[in-house]
Amino acid sequence: MNLGIKRRVHWAAGYGVSRALLKLLARRGDPLAQLVIDTDQPENVYQLVEEVRLRGRFSAFLGGGLATADASIVREVLRDDRFRTIKPRDRSPSRLARWILAKTDPNVLNATEPPSMLVTDSPEHARLRRLVSRAFTPRALEGLRRQIQQTADNLLDGLDGDATCDLIAGYTARIPLEVIAGMLGIPRAEIPYLHEFGEPGTRLIASAAPSWWDFQVSMEALTEFEQYLAMHVERLRQRGADDSILAAVLQDGDLSDSEVRMFAALLLGAGFITTTHVLGKAVVTLVRHPDQLDRLLANPEGWPNAVEEMLRYDTAIQWGGRVATEALDIHGQTVHAGQFILLLLGGANRDPAIFDRPDEFDSTRANAREHVSFGSGIHVCLGAALARMELQIGLQSLFARFPQLTLAGEPTLNDSMALHGLSHLPVRLRPAAVVAS
């Protein structure tokens, strides 16, 4: 079968039908459908979440599924081993459609398919997590702390001569990207090349059912990225003496080639895209709450809790999902075996039953750390400690250098509800010069 036709058929069977149904519901004003399918109104994400919350602790979802923004339920489902992660076969209830999906599988590196740790379950998940956990030991993280601080300082030095700039391109995207590149042993000269894969490579998860155009863009980017990773892995094997985390994983020899490439891809995607989004939105939040920023500048010991509140207040990954493996009861709701639950993480982080005044940013919030931005249970984000470190160092260093930083225009949200972030952040680093008349 021609590659183009094969991909078109795969998209139609896996995404096309559900996309058509969701688009129909969205046009009729259904907030849940708008939340998971529309990519042109990211500014409305929390408004839509609250409309879903008004329906009750559970809301009916497409194909007999359920959705919830209830923080207690979200955390319970994430921790319950009677739920599994979503598999490619879950994209369609039709046996014929599942057969078509298997026959037309593009066989490209995809974080939503095995061997990705995001969609593997025990005991396979435990094996993969154990083999790559060396990247996030306290000793490894302490070494990364110095690198993060040096990276931030160097980037800020480069901004010193600029009156205005796009802070995403000049700072917030570059910190996590350079850190991850170091962990992967990627030469600095190739870092800009990695940046090109980030946005197109994540379009598969920009909505619950990506458009045909987004699917094509992602397939091309992921295919090229996998070829690059295969070349880089072979280069590391030949180099031998590299001290990067990826080289150490290769030397262990316990991961297959596809698992090694998936590990590298996950590090880049999870460690770069999501941290970039949180970091950019956190800058906007602080600038719009100058009293709290002033308090942090005067009392730096408040930064760790402020970072937790930023993770809660404006979530990067807005939703996830689980499938029940058996019939069970969750807070009075019967969930059937095979039933899907959409977990609205951003909604859980603004659950008024857990957080007082949830729509307000409060850097001193006592229970800010109760957010679920890093998930929970066995799939809790392996790089959570690294992300927290990058956020604190990145923000604290930025505002220590430019305490009078202001917005130089309206920030531009990206076109994704699921991976909610900024694509452009114009800032003025210093007050405008006053010209004498």
Assign the structural class, choosing from mainly alpha, mainly beta, alpha/beta, alpha+beta, or little secondary structure. alpha+beta
Average pLDDT, all residues: 89
In total, the number of domains comes to 1
Q: Helix and strand succession?
A: HHHEEHEHHHEHHHHHHHHEEEEHHEEEE
> Would you identify the CATH architecture?
Orthogonal Bundle
CATH H-tier superfamily: Cytochrome P450
Strand content: 5-15%
Instruction: Kindly identify the CATH topology.
Output: Cytochrome p450
**What is the terminal-to-terminal distance?**
73 Å
* Radius of gyration over C-alpha positions, nearest whole angstrom: 22 Å
Main sheet properties:
5 strands, mixed
Major sheet: order of its strands?
1-2-8-5-3
Percentage of residues in helical conformation: 40-55%
Broad CATH class:
Mainly Alpha
Shape: globular
Count of runs of 4 or more consecutive helical residues: 17
